[in-house]
Amino acid sequence: MGSFVASSSLTYCVAVLIFAVFCDGGTTSPFVRKIWPSVAMPFDSDVFALPLGYNAPQQVHITQGDHVGKAVIVSWVTPDEPGSNKVHYWSEKDHKKKKYSEDTVVTSYKYYNYTSGYIHHCTIKDLEPDTKYHYVVGSGHVRRQFWFVTPPEVGPDVPYTFGLIGDLGQTHDSNVTLTHYEQNPYNPKAVLYVGDLSYADDHPLHNSLRWDSWGRFVERSVAYQHWIWVSGNHEIDYCPEIGEYTPFKPYLHRYEVPYRESNSTSPLWYSIKRASAYIIVLSSYSAYAIYTPQYQWLKEELPKVNRSETPWLIVLMHTPMYNSYNYHYMEGESMRVVFEPWFVEHKVDVVIAGHVHAYERTERISNIAYNITNGLATPVRDPNAPVYITIGDGGNLEGIANNMTEPQPDYSAYREASFGHAIFDIKNRTHAYYAWNRNDDGTAAEADSLWFHNRYWYPDEEGENGNSRKRTINKMDQNCLIFQSWCP
Ligand SMILES: [Fe+2]
């Protein structure tokens, strides 16, 4: 059985290699994944297990709590009564200086016939950079202890590894994706999560118990790592048929983000700095036309990015602006028309989206010349443009998107109908290594990869099809002579 799998993998790799070598345009992977039933794991699955004890804190999760990474928001839910609202925490460097944070907001909400537990959001401030902290939520016999590592001080050559996950849901495929992410050999430190969390709204009456089970499912990662949240369409939960008229009600109660720190007026769009990256989160399902709050915020936000402090400019959103699948085709077009010229002007390095339940990476292209009458409506190669990555392949219950537009557009560098996750591994101000793993290969094989060249500090083309690793590494050798902060 093992040798059969090995020879099958070898045959597949050779086939992909031949395909990649002899095709001049982008690559449509011939890989066909095993089709598993796309259903949510049952409530009695071990991944949803309740912590032991009356009113024990559950669904523990953390995210960045300020603009630069010196604060953390710790969130948890108590099911029966509010319980303790304190977080007890201490640095691994100094066990004796244990502190309590009481900067906690406790909230709850009703959604149709469901009443949430008590949702706690506690902001811990003034943390040391690059330091391991232990923390405890709950009290008495239901104390639960976790830990996290704060990001390093913000700076231009600070290495940092992000994980990229989208549209995860809570199926068996979701569990495989999360497990592979946890096993990723690059040891990513935080997740850029590009929207669509629980898929509760795919269940009858938007079954809110699925928000709770999702929170328990991902706790094993997000209680220990910061996940940076982006809202997707499955967070809207707008359902007039059952009297639910307030968009994003469950999501906004459960997932707190530091939006005020970046002068945003909404938790649906905001920014953070983390190590050498400046991360901008946008909302595909909030108004973004001229004069709207999100438009005005982004217009003022982009010029603030100091590439000498944070060279890597990363934009997250849910709906992709470039997508060559027949699912959600052109849904991101209206936002593209509004925001793409700014992305090119400000040399955004990469735009990461989800929504389409498959994988795709583009070349560096833009489509900003069109003015209704000139006919220039075809994307063109543009060294100032971002790479667009669609990674809505977490494995939710809606299944894989396997119907692609044909032929593959020139702008599409690689696309594949598989579930998976990726890492974005920043080495220094000029280079970052990006790799996508399909679930079917675990973490053993990188199905798609690219050495990113920073648009501000090293705006050379990455190579033919964006993936000429040999050529790129040669350039990196030259670059090492200049910056000497990291060498392959
Ligand atoms: Fe979506």
UniProtKB/TrEMBL annotation:
Enzyme class: hydrolase
Keyword Glycoprotein: yes
InterPro entries attached to this UniProt entry: Calcineurin-like_PHP, FN3_dom, Metallo-depent_PP-like, MPP_PAP, PAPs-like, PAPs_C, PAPs_N, Purple_acid_Pase-like_N
Recorded superkingdom: Eukaryota
Signal sequence, renumbered to the chain: 1-25
Keywords: Glycoprotein, Hydrolase, Iron, Signal, Zinc
Reaction(s) catalysed (UniProt annotation): a phosphate monoester + H2O = an alcohol + phosphate
EC number: 3.1.3.2
Coiled coil segments of this chain: none
Cofactor names: Fe cation; Zn(2+)
Calcineurin-like phosphoesterase domain mapped to chain residues: 161-359
Domain Purple acid phosphatase N-terminal: 57-150
Limits of the Purple acid phosphatase C-terminal domain: 385-444
PANTHER family, sorted: ACID PHOSPHATASE RELATED (PTHR22953), PURPLE ACID PHOSPHATASE 10 (PTHR22953:SF86)
Family: Belongs to the metallophosphoesterase superfamily. Purple acid phosphatase family.
Name this polypeptide is given: Purple acid phosphatase
Organism: Rhodamnia argentea
